[in-house]
């Protein structure tokens, strides 16, 4: 695996991070730079923490144990051991490795909180964290281990363990190696944690937030793409675009619905297929199809509701990106105070909301695909869009695959945030399960991508079977991407699985959307 490089940078400490910042570090290997103001605040608040080290009054995380053991006073000579033991014991993840982009996102978000000065870490600890991520070293984090309160403890503890030179990481080339070896190769000295630092490194919502941010970025693209595939399906099934008129959408002023309808109109514009079934060939909006099925006619209502839900999720994400999550926290006026800001409920809720709308959007797309394959509902197309029905099965089993994914998405839509399992001897008696909500949303986003790819392939074949009538220029551009990628048009059966994966790739990487927008202009 080759080393990834990037010339872009993200500056931390000049204001809240933006979604694009997180994506740049997580996916494009942007370098992290801290502002001088951030370094100054880190030094100032560290001095406050060190002043409390000898205070006979116990201070949580500085001179006490943790969680249910917070009543135990820890003598000064054992506090380095306290921090080390905290990280080692909390690095208790299990299961498959979490994706590199997720680990990089959560590391950036923890660095951002540490840079606020509200956590009291030392400058040298923070510099080591930044150096490790900038060197392309990715701590190995596991699928299971976080309850989403007190934040994502186990995932963040695996990252903190790497700062100590322990555990295993992926180096810049993607090889799994002992951490000490990777740090040495990068010229990075491991840290010996001091008072408060172990807790500061592991107490945050950074994992679930990182996955939320990445999902929002993906869904912004997928929602526009879903409008493209829906428009192609309406067009190919001889549906009407009259119902997408802006004055009709304005009667129900949800912004997402209106934007989605505008996209559908833009993609269908100039379609000879659409023109072929107008009641008045001179251009009246009337259509020989009085009312289309809901999966066609109501596409903007469903996709629009999904858009509005993503907008809400982004508002939550931006608030969280502006937060400094730790416990205890060093306030700007110098107090060290316990708090509950590590609870992941606000993030967990929107992660679950998004899984619901992803499932519903995919469910509607699957219904449009099924209509194409049923000669009783496809307005004259051959059964299963097969070349020689009976000898050929066409796209019959592609729809099975799509239906199986949709069924999975419905199960993934069951909310994680309504569950809570008490932990830490009932000290932590209510948890958010936000990490679990985030993990299932990642699977859901992948599932939606695959469902839309199958709708795209199906609509493309259906449109081409309307020859000699021609699709809209935008639909033709989308079809062109599939054909240029090696997916053949209508014809005898062929091995379908590689074509499905190719369709997933060109949809996920934005190629289809870019081709369409080259015709329509930027979609909403």
TrEMBL record:
This enzyme catalyses:
L-histidine = trans-urocanate + NH4(+)
PANTHER family, A to Z = HISTIDINE AMMONIA-LYASE
GO cellular component terms, semicolon-separated: cytoplasm
Is Phosphoprotein among this UniProt entry's keywords?
no
Q: Tell me the SUPFAM superfamilies matching this sequence.
A: L-aspartase-like
Swiss-Prot/TrEMBL keywords: Histidine metabolism, Lyase
Q: Known Pfam families for this protein?
A: Lyase_aromatic
Q: What is this protein called?
A: Histidine ammonia-lyase
**Record's subcellular location:** Cytoplasm
Top-tier EC class: lyase
Pathway it works in: Amino-acid degradation; L-histidine degradation into L-glutamate; N-formimidoyl-L-glutamate from L-histidine: step 1/3
Say yes or no: keyword Glycoprotein present: no
Q: Which InterPro entries is this protein grouped with?
A: Aromatic_Lyase, Fumarase/histidase_N, HutH, L-Aspartase-like, Phe/His_NH3-lyase_AS
Q: Where are the transmembrane segments?
A: none
One annotated GO molecular function: histidine ammonia-lyase activity
Into which family does the record put it? Belongs to the PAL/histidase family.
* Native source organism of the sequence: Microlunatus flavus
EC nos: 4.3.1.3
